[in-house]
Amino acid sequence: MQVELIGLNLPYQSKIQFRSSQGASSAYTLLRLTTRDGTAGIAEVTGIANVADSDAAVLADQFDRFFRPLLEDADPLDHNGLLVALERVRGAAIAKALIDTALWDLKGKLLGQPVWRLLGGGPPRPVPVTAILFGDTPAAMLDDAERTVARGIRALKVKLWRHSMDDVNLVRDIRAAVGAEVLIYADANHAYSETEARTLLPKLAEYGVALIEDPCALPVERLAELRRALPIALLGEIPIDSLAAAQRYIAAQAVGAISLHPRRTGISETLKIIALCEAAGLPAIVGTDLESHVGALTRAHLRAAIPALEPWPSEIQFFERLAGDVLTESLSVVDGAIAVPDRPGFGATLDEEKLQRYRVRG
Fold first, then answer.
1. Which residues partner with 236 through β-bridges?
2. Which residue, 314, 284, 312, is CA-closest to 299?
3. Which one of 3.40.50.150, 3.30.450.180, 1.10.287.130, 3.30.390.10 gives the CATH number of domain 2-113+352-358?
4. Could you identify which of 34, 189, 196, 201 might form a hypothetical disulfide with 2, taking C-beta atoms 3.0 to 4.6 angstroms apart as the criterion?
5. Phi, psi dihedral angles at 118 (to 5 degrees)
6. Which pLDDT tens digit goes with each residue over 169-205?
7. Dist. CA 276–CA 68, nearest whole Å
8. What are 322-346's pLDDT values in tens digits?
């Protein structure tokens, strides 16, 4: 297989306020695996600030040193054998996840089947999405919530970054604006101290908050104690970076649900995490990695194929915040959901003209 890494910079429609910074674009790295007959499997990873393994230069070095030699002469349909070979390299989880995801796309294209069918799914229904609210002020986030619900999206994730009553009041105002039928959950991105979490987060129960994601950075045993003290279930995301981590947090009863991130665990390991959650009776929710259209399709196929994921909407709406994309096919949220294509693989075909427009040189 020919192995190609492509760096991209995709602009936002408008600047986005994150917890500690404001951004105008996102960096992405695409992996394209191409067979001798020209069939290509693609996958993406978002470059996340302070996550070294998602940096394009780090990924390029890892592929040159470890993975390109493994892939170039490999049989793309020997998927499990390749995964075993990859595990002989320690670390580099994001690079391995990228390879695994591209192999699923390539396998679907070689076999002429959509990935949702390869995963055992029947004809997929549209996948309902959760929108993550952004804004540099509470008023801006409230406006984002109202516009989002007006479009038919029925699930919202609210960022709690002020770790004060301002967060509680924001959730109160959003609930009042969108009504009782909209699913709301909150994400603190580890911004809270344990004392703040114990004092402030119980107040969110009054406003029908379904889950609280990553309230604070604690050892797993302390997080389990916090979970027992709160009236709202905890959604684990940041520390759940592997099957082993998911098993550890579930065994400790430190979380009430798990956020799935193919950026870190690919498709194959994510399937194992889903099975683990199902055995433990915990919800598994497809989380966001600030994905572009490419990553949104990947997550939509996963969500559509696995019945255990159906009760919860998926965080795959971020691509609508982008002003550019690199696909030939359109992708959009209609009536709060994404239609999953039945094209082979994930259904993503790169537009070479767009690719050159957004490609990062050097």
1. 258
2. 314
3. 3.30.390.10
4. 34
5. -60, -30
6. 999 999 999 999 999 999 999 999 999 999 999 999 9
7. 32
8. 999 999 988 899 999 999 999 999 9
Q: Are 259 and 213 in contact (CB under 8 A)?
A: yes
* Kind plus residue range of the DSSP H or E element containing 31: strand 22-34
| Closest alpha carbon to 282 in 240, 324, 323 | 240
Burial 283-319 (b: 16+ CB within 10 A, else e): bbbbbbbbbbbbbbbbbbbbbbbbeebeebbbbbbbb
pTM over 0.85: yes
**Cα dihedral 106/108/112/118 (nearest 10):** 170
Distances in Å between the alpha carbon of 234 and those of 88, 184, 227?
34, 13, 6
Superfamily designation of domain 118-338? Enolase-like C-terminal domain (3.20.20.120)
Judge whether residue 20 has pLDDT over 70: no
The Cα–Cα gap between 265 and 79 comes to 15
Report residue 124 as tokens.
């997929």
CATH 3.20.20.120 domain range(s) in the chain: 118-338
Asked if 3 and 71 touch (Cβ cutoff 8 Å), the reply is: yes
DSSP letter at 65 equals I
Question: What mean pLDDT is predicted for residues 94-105?
Answer: 98
Six-digit token string for 155: 């699930």
